[in-house]
Amino acid sequence: MDVLATEYDQIDWGIVGIGVRSVDKSISTVLQAQGGLYTLISKGSVETDINVRIIGSIIGYIFAPDEPERALATLMHPDTKIVSMTITVSGYDIDMTNIDIQHDLQHP
């Protein structure tokens, strides 16, 4: 997305990240301090094949546990066109003793 914005001068959009895990709070702090900028380093198969770019497509980051209303308002805002979710490995963990899981298993 950052490449598209750069190549086609699309400055009227951006990415707002929303974190929900405790580790995401530090990401929020760092991104805010850096104005949403971060560095992408790509390495090729040859040691000298290195490409470094500053990515600027993140225009905001919300730590949802601290600002749940703002997170929901951002998700529901008419200007929000895409909602993409990343589920980490720990998000797939299923506690078979959980009563909600047991209920779902008994009532498919």
UniProtKB/TrEMBL annotation:
Q: Provide the GO MF annotations for this entry.
A: oxidoreductase activity, acting on the CH-OH group of donors, NAD or NADP as acceptor
Question: SUPFAM superfamilies under this entry?
Answer: NAD(P)-binding Rossmann-fold domains
PANTHER family in the record:
MANNITOL DEHYDROGENASE 2-RELATED, MANNITOL DEHYDROGENASE DSF1-RELATED
Name of the protein described by the UniProt record: Uncharacterized protein
What is the source species?
Answer: Rotaria socialis
